[in-house]
Amino acid sequence: xxxxxxxxxxxxxxxxxxxxxxxxxxxxLGYQPNDVARSMRAKTTxxxxxVGADIVNPFFANAMxxxxxxxxxxxxxxxxxxxxxxxxxxxxxxxxxxxxQVDGIILAPTGVGDAPHLRSVVESGTPLVFIDRALADVPxxxxxxxxxxxxxxxxxxxxxxxxxxxxxxxxxxxxGDDARCPVTDDDEWAARSVPDGVSxxxxxxxxxxxxxxxxxxxxxxRAAGVPVDSRLARRVPRYSQEAAxxxxxxxxxxxxxxxxxxxxxxxxxxGTVVALREAGLTMPDDISLVTFDDLDWTAITTPPITVxxxxxxxxxxxxxxxxxxxxNGDTSPPARVxxxxxxxxxxxxxxxGPRSS
Amino acid sequence: xxxxxxxxxxxxxxxxxxxxxxxxxxxxLGYQPNDVARSMRAKTTxxxxxVGADIVNPFFANAMxxxxxxxxxxxxxxxxxxxxxxxxxxxxxxxxxxxxQVDGIILAPTGVGDAPHLRSVVESGTPLVFIDRALADVPxxxxxxxxxxxxxxxxxxxxxxxxxxxxxxxxxxxxGDDARCPVTDDDEWAARSVPDGVSxxxxxxxxxxxxxxxxxxxxxxRAAGVPVDSRLARRVPRYSQEAAxxxxxxxxxxxxxxxxxxxxxxxxxxGTVVALREAGLTMPDDISLVTFDDLDWTAITTPPITVxxxxxxxxxxxxxxxxxxxxNGDTSPPARVxxxxxxxxxxxxxxxGPRSS
Lengths: 357, 357
Hints:
Chain A is an alpha/beta fold. Chain A has helices at 2-9, 16-28, 33-42, 58-73, 87-99, 116-123, 147-160, 209-224, 241-252, 266-278, 312-327, and strands at 47-52, 77-82, 105-107, 128-131, 141-144, 166-169, 260-263, 288-292, 306-309, 336-338, 342-344. Chains A, B: Keywords: DNA-binding, Repressor, Transcription, Transcription regulation.
């Protein structure tokens, strides 16, 4: 076994005859000696790792498709692992990928603030590219969207329709160091006026997407001169469809309920739709809704739902292209790439109806 | 680099002082020498591979969650790769996982018939467990459901409600050797009476899920003494939501359209719902629908959709348990495990309405 490992791995002494035997056996078992030989020459394994935060979220499945397609075009295999939004599992996943000697890693950081395990990756020379979120303290490329602007567009659409009581459905742990995706925005943090929930000003440069989207919600209100009722912008306490449903249910029971809602991602959006159904409310007559992510289900509800479309596949593909450029020796300074989003206006948004105004 | 590899990998000569230095550096970089040492002792890498057929299909994402949870409980990392339902990519994924020396592989076979690359895996001593589908010629455990019985239950529900014109929406390439998941069923292949589409009798023991579900559709009709109109049971020519939509659209345009539909999985189901919406049909007044897979979206359509619920998470968890038992030396004969499904009756199914009868 040690001999076969030396022959296939290309280290230590193996007699030419033995090496021939091992390679023949490898062929019989389906290995391709050319792959092995090429990766020896190039000092790469022609494999990359992708650490997604939650594989059940379609965002990561669609991004993985983009990563895989580009990687394959360049002869690389991709291994996906899953951090379940837990820092310890992210550390373990990164360690496991390094042990497997992948040539680079694409990662949606679940941790915030200090990330020595990710700085180590960069310092060890293994290329690292962030997707969806980034960590300002780790010098690596990142592929994101402008979450603040995207949310501002979504909420601005509702404000322009005439809505003045717009609920935010977001799990946005906005604190100074609990923040990830760079935002360049010099505005005052509009949330100062919100006493409960999304109340702290985040670090301008690093912020989780949900917090950035909450920021955009507040900025849109500020730009329109519309005050935010703090009872409509409380944090959803857990990241789950059920918690979103409960929060929407609470807001619908207010004496002056919202006439529109903005859900910060597809999980929050699903919970919101369930709450509206249970309350017997009809979109857009009774209430309007905008959510994030153009998933299949948003087009088959009654009515179809107005969404912010992220170019998820393209984000994965671009992350793979950046990573492979680094693997091939690109040493330019780390760049932040922001891909454009689109507001798709469908049937779930309209002027406040007679029943809601 | 070669020295570090020897020290961490545990082969060849490394002086004790050098080995100490390498391990110290590994700790600094976030490696855990205990993991390395343990895997050396146990001759395992404490990693397993999962080859899913299509990562964008929520089936595989949910199964991956089950696989990961069980693997983690036992200290194993999981690497997911994706075959995109292509045999060449499956072969490549398996090869890449073997090069990475995973301790075992869970795989949803996309190829059919002869699978020398998978027989090689088994012969080389690397444990292999099939999920969702199996190959009769490869002696490995498989975790499936009884697809024939599940479809028979779904279609039986529609027949019991009084429907006599039930459409099948399935991409079911039913041919003698184009078949995967074992079915133990001694019935005659009811499709003999169907001239176009699902017309051939599959091998009793190996069959793709969609073909098995088409079989169940036909068996339910046979059991009820209801003839099948071949125009309602043609094969959807491509595996895509759009192709399913087009096929349903064609059937709705018939002089005697169906009063109910059975969609063989969640992709076919999505396309079916889109076609019904576009035709302006209301469920269940105009038409009834049963589909496969209890995905979130099936509960938020208007009305919610009657589905066959597969225990997808449990299938992944059970696959991981079987695989780890094999890794730990279980040499009992390969077993086929069939997990139970449930029919969840929701608002999309009812007696044929006045507008459809």
